[in-house]
User: Fold this.
Amino acid sequence: MEERINKGVIAGEKATVSHVAVASGDRARVDYQVTEAGEQGCTGGQLAPAEISELLAQLIDGLHRSDHPDREDLVEFAEDAREELASDAPRTGKLRRVARALVEAVPGIAGVASLAVTIEEAVRNL
Assistant:
């Protein structure tokens, strides 16, 4: 029997792991992006509205590729949030409700669920 060593997801140097990532099974993998603090203009984990909008764009892309039965409604909901973020004075209460709803709607889609949690945390820090 072949012995396998699972090294998990490794972050080195200045990287910070802010969420749990799990890959299971033969040839399973985790897609991730490593950015250094400050690289995208964020400090202390706080993201700017434009950065949150970019995360929403990634979430929308993931929803389009998913087989979620409500994906079109969720895409529309996320697009509304992007429009709100682009306004002169984004309504954080509305954004928090949208972020919470997205987290609750996509728990079974690993990549999208992780993005939804990241978005929710970022909106909470606005």
User: Anything to note?
Assistant: Helices lie at 49-65, 71-86, 92-105, 110-124.
